[in-house]
Amino acid sequence: MQRRHFVRLAALAASSASIPKSWRDLAHLRGAPAVNAARLNAHLQALRQFGKNEAGGISRVAYSAADLGARDYARQLMREAGLTVRTDAAGNIFGRRAGSDARATPILFGSHVDSVPDGGNYDGQVGSMGAIEVAHALKDAGVVTRHPLDVVIWQNEEGGTWGSHLVTSDPTDRELATVATSGKTIREGIAVLGGDLEQLGSARLRTGSIHAYFELHIEQGGLLDKAGIQIGVVEGIVGLRQWEVTILGVANHAGTTPMPDRHDAMLAAARFTEMVNRVVTSEAGRQVGTVGRIQAFPGAPNVIPGKVVCTLELRDLDDPKIERLFRSVQREAQSIGVNNGTTFAFREFVTHESALSDPRLRTIIGDAARRLGFSTMSLPSGAGHDAQNLARIGPMGMIFVPSVAGISHAPAEFSAPDAIARGADVLLATVLTADTTTL
Amino acid sequence: MQRRHFVRLAALAASSASIPKSWRDLAHLRGAPAVNAARLNAHLQALRQFGKNEAGGISRVAYSAADLGARDYARQLMREAGLTVRTDAAGNIFGRRAGSDARATPILFGSHVDSVPDGGNYDGQVGSMGAIEVAHALKDAGVVTRHPLDVVIWQNEEGGTWGSHLVTSDPTDRELATVATSGKTIREGIAVLGGDLEQLGSARLRTGSIHAYFELHIEQGGLLDKAGIQIGVVEGIVGLRQWEVTILGVANHAGTTPMPDRHDAMLAAARFTEMVNRVVTSEAGRQVGTVGRIQAFPGAPNVIPGKVVCTLELRDLDDPKIERLFRSVQREAQSIGVNNGTTFAFREFVTHESALSDPRLRTIIGDAARRLGFSTMSLPSGAGHDAQNLARIGPMGMIFVPSVAGISHAPAEFSAPDAIARGADVLLATVLTADTTTL
Hints:
Number of strands of chain A: 16
Strand content of chain A: 15-25%
Oligomer: homodimer
Largest sheet of chain A: 9 strands, mixed
Radius of gyration of chain A: 24 Å
Number of domains of chain A: 2
CATH architecture of the largest domain in chain A: 3-Layer(aba) Sandwich
Largest interface: A-B, 60 and 60 residues
Structural class of chain A: alpha+beta
Number of helices of chain A: 14
CATH topology of the largest domain in chain A: Aminopeptidase
């Protein structure tokens, strides 16, 4: 394992002691604890066994046996890190390290260990093992913070950030009846994980009940990897809106209807898809737009489609920008329709507002990373994370580490051990700075 | 009913007799028999009852009770027209009018009475009732042709020109096992219609066994209606090729994957569809190209499609032109793929070569129409017809009459009574000229 800051600090310390011991020695030399990179990566390796699949990834959907196994393993590591473990009524696992100030609100940090079907070994897992390692490093260093620390493993993140949603909102019966990928409902899942549906209110995190929330995660867009940047300071989780787009033309005989006389809904859909791409890429920024699903009716090779139904998704950190892009798309769709006698109708069916990270926490994260000698970049998270729910009840900050080629939700997902250790060290330094900062 | 040529001829004849009688009078004045337009349109009206639906159209799929009823009605009209009726082994109905030359091959003309589900009252029916009316007019006029005349009602045209296919080829067991729209196989359908599967060979029409084949039909593309032309002289039935197009990109997270890093198969499919339209319309001619079916995989609003499967259909009267257009499409698809890192693969799954009408019969049809004072236009048939199979074994000619707005295969399908009578008169004149022409 190569860690540049280690080499740099080692040179400063003129020390060449064995690595595991030297970490702590170096940490003491620079006046702060550091994570044990070898231990952290060993834990990540060990975690792979739960739901391991033949492709080298994992299938560990929430509420499955693999999920239960990984959660038990996380509890064991929490205890080894000196944490007091409990499962909240929603099925989230909390590991508490007491602080020196009994009246101080806890600093919360963690991630999730569930995966998508045929997922990889890093999404969620880096942040979960990293958070436990931070607690373990503090125990090793004998550091007691002012605020209590809560390491958290959220339940069912991949199914829609359920664990954090359940404790930051008042879930409806309909939501609880949602069937998860495992086939179990959220309600059933809570019971399987050892939660208590009757006491769900007891798990509720109200505004002001936490000092801060931090989450370490792999960056799933490949931006850090492409730019060769070590640490991403997350500006927030992008807003997301999805529409069902219905294009009506006139179905007709594909042999007898001359080209100029057609009201071809498929041709209009094609021009729409191309136009969405153009509108989204025609201005600077990291906004994205996608047509992911499409169906043509009647859907025969020899019939001009009279109707096409497709989806439109727009995401950006800036909600008004999404609205502005959508209006452009709507306006241009109108023109496309006029051009060949088709009509466009939009029905919005998913709306998630963006969740910005706290600017003070962004500064703390960026400063911590640079102090450790790491290159940094500010960027949005295009993917959803539990952090977006926590942002509703308190200051939120996220730390990204590179994922090679941005591959995610697939067995080929990979982050280098030293990249992971850097992220955990930044999390550790961030928690310590936040502990002494009034937010 | 208004018929321009009637008015013109009536003026010439300085006659104002009642219409049914005057037709024959006028016909005699101009030296040739003419159809009884009132009778023809009354028969078409009566035919509507078989499979009549609430929308004002018909549902008369082959082998249904409605189909059997319409066929019985046609047989009755054939007998009233003085024809000797038989059902061939394939289930086609033939009505024979003897000629004066026992060694002469028959002139065959007719169409079909089956419909698509929720079809209209003109497709096939105009040509069927028109053919019977031609025979009836000859009986009325006491004209005996040299060649025997065979009026034919082909079985199951809408299911894929089965009746004419069965007698112009040697059908395989697999073809006979095809399930028709009625749910019955072709094999079962032949029995239902009173055919004889064991004697199928007896129904075979060999090359040289007919003097000519003629078919009167509505023009389903709306070209005649748009141009205000009364009679279409069909150049032939276009060739048709269909491909399944598979576009491969890389499925990825629609939130985290930056726009420039995408290999979006849906965007490539959109550019492909737009390009097909451009290639097909970029040169003069009546060629058509259609993308009628499409599916994106995995097909979720929040996933960039990694694969799209769609269809491509190209039709033209000139088979080499289809090939040339396809090569352009293939070449441009390649460029689209290079542009965003996707690949295109084409699998051809339907190939029908074009069937040209006989140039001498085209001349006879055009001359007959102009002699009657009708405007004419040469045009291809974009739709398939039984005539395309007959073209394999003898000279084929087709006569089109306008269908309002080109609407077809729908209850709103409509051709004006006078337009239909014009077509039948052209058919009559054409048969008489062909009878005295060496082909």
